[in-house]
Write a structure and sequence with these properties.
By secondary structure, the chain is mainly β. The chain has strands spanning 15-16, 22-25, 30-35, 42-46, 53-54, 60-66, 72-79, 86-87, 94-99, 105-110, 114-119, 126-130, 135-140, 146-151, 163-169, 175-182, 187-190, 196-200, 205-209. A hairpin with a 6-residue loop joins strand 11 (114-119) and strand 12 (126-130).
C-alpha cells in the first residue's frame, strides 16, 4: 500500500515519533508530518528534514531552517499541530539537536564552539563543552546526566581523520570518558539499562561502561 509521496531521495528514512503515531517525511525544503496510517498529511514549516528531532512526548519538533543558498538561521521549535513555532537560537552554526529524556532541555552542536545546552523555551543558553573540532551525534544518557558524542577534527582539516568518542557530565561539563580514534561514521546508542553506550563502527564496535 502506498502511504504518501516523498519529495526527497528514497534512501532517506521516515522519522517516526517516539509514541509511534506520526512520521516526519523526507522533503527537500519543508517539514512535513503525517499519521502512521497515512492520514493527516500536514506541512508544518519550511525546514531541513535531516535536522528534525522529535521531543520525547511526540508533541514538538526541533529543526534547522535553511534560507536562500542553504544559509542556516539557527534552531527552531514547532508543535506537531503546526502551532507555536518559536526560535531557540539565532546562530547559523547550530545543528545536531538532541532532546533531554525529560523534554525540558535541548543539547546541540555549535560549529567552532562545541556542545551547547538550552532550556526547551530557548532560555538558559550556555556552552557545555568547548571544542574547535566538529561535534556531532549528540546522544543523552537515559538518566539525563551525561551526553556522548563524536568529536572530529576542525572543518579546515582532513575530515577523513579518525575522531574521538566523548562522554561529558551535563551538570558541570567535565569530561567523563574519551575513546580515541573511532570511526566518525559510527552511530551512538545506549544500552537498554542505561549502563553504557555503544557506537557501531565501520569494522568494529566499542562498548563503554559508564
Amino acid at each position: 500500500m502506498r502511504i504518501a509521496a516523498a519529495d526527497a531521495p528514497i534512501f532517506e528514512p521516515w522519522a517516526p515519533s517516539p509514541d509511534g503515531w506520526k512520521l516526519i517525511l523526507p522533503n527537500n525544503s519543508d517539514l512535513v508530518v503525517m499519521n502512521s496510517d497515512g492520514s493527516g498529511l500536514r506541512r508544518l514549516a519550511a525546514g531541513d528534514y535531516g535536522t528534525a528531532v522529535w521531543s520525547p512526548d511526540s508533541k514538538k519538533i526541533v529543526f534547522v531552517r535553511r534560507g536562500p543558498e542553504g544559509f542556516r538561521s539557527g534552531l527552531l521549535l514547532i508543535g506537531v499541530d503546526g502551532r507555536g513555532e518559536r526560535r531557540l537560537t539565532r546562530n547559523s552554526s547550530d545543528d545536531e539537536a538532541a532532546w533531554a529524556p525529560d523534554g525540558k532541555r535541548v543539547a546541540f552542536a555549535r560549529r567552532g564552539t562545541g556542545a551547547m545546552l538550552a532550556d526547551a523555551d530557548g532560555t538558559d543558553l550556555r556552552v557545555l563543552w568547548r571544542s574547535r573540532g566538529v561535534v556531532e551525534g549528540l546522544h543523552w544518557a537515559t538518566d539525563g546526566r551525561s551526553l556522548t558524542f563524536v568529536q572530529g577534527p576542525p572543518l579546515a582539516t582532513d575530515r577523513g581523520q579518525f575522531s574521538d568518542l566523548v562522554t561529558i557530565s551535563v551538570p558541570d561539563g567535565r569530561t567523563l570518558r574519551r575513546v580515541q580514534h573511532v570511526d566518525p561514521l559510527g552511530r551512538i546508542a545506549w544500552s537498554p539499562d542505561g549502563s553504557g553506550s555503544r557506537t557501531g563502527l565501520t569494522t568494529a564496535s566499542v562498548l563503554l561502561s559508564l
